[in-house]
């Protein structure tokens, strides 16, 4: 499970979330070398919290509220499971990003995949990464609407 976790790990050291107390944009900070050192702080209302989860457990489960490990692949931060700040509903799916860098990464990745298809190359540059991203995100029929959604998220933030 840890290998599969690698590609996303650079985006989860600082995660922008909606404060569960006041709804403002706030942040969860985590030390990449020590996930036990993870805390939430809202500069607006002052709410703060230290994470006490299982720092060695990574999972993708849908039953994430019942577990205290590090969750990836859902529109919540990996630790406290607070709602992410950068989200947008597309059809019945949720586009989400942990922070602005992650949002830019998704945008670039989708743009790259369009370029590669046009060049007629053999599929994706990074197949291991492709398998980590949700299928609907990579469907060519969805690209236009996803890129538009990313642009809209950027404009309001
Ligand atoms: Zn707050």
What are the defining features of this structure?
157 residues; four-stranded antiparallel sheet; 2 domains; alpha+beta; binds zinc ion
Which kinds of small molecule does this entry bind, naming each only once?
A: zinc ion
Spans of 5+ residues with little confidence (pLDDT < 50)?
A: none
What profile does the largest beta sheet have?
Answer: 4 strands, antiparallel
Helix content: 25-40%
Distance between the termini: 33 Å
Which class do the helix and strand fractions yield? Answer: alpha+beta
* Radius of gyration, taken over Cα atoms and rounded to an integer in Å: 16 Å
Mean pLDDT: 84
What fraction strand? 15-25%
Which series of helices and strands comes N to C? HEEEEEEEEHHHH
What is shown here, in short?
The chain contains five helices and eight strands; from the N terminus they run H-E-E-E-E-E-E-E-E-H-H-H-H. By secondary structure, the protein is an alpha+beta fold.
Task: Characterise the protein shown here.
The structure is a single chain. The chain folds into 2 domains: 83 residues, no CATH class; 69 residues, no CATH class. It is an alpha+beta fold and 157 residues long. The mean pLDDT is 84. Helix 2 packs antiparallel against helix 5. The strands form 3 sheets. A 4-stranded antiparallel sheet has the order 1-2-3-4, with no helix packed on it. The protein binds zinc ion. Zinc ion binds next to loops. The site of zinc ion has 9 residues, from loops.
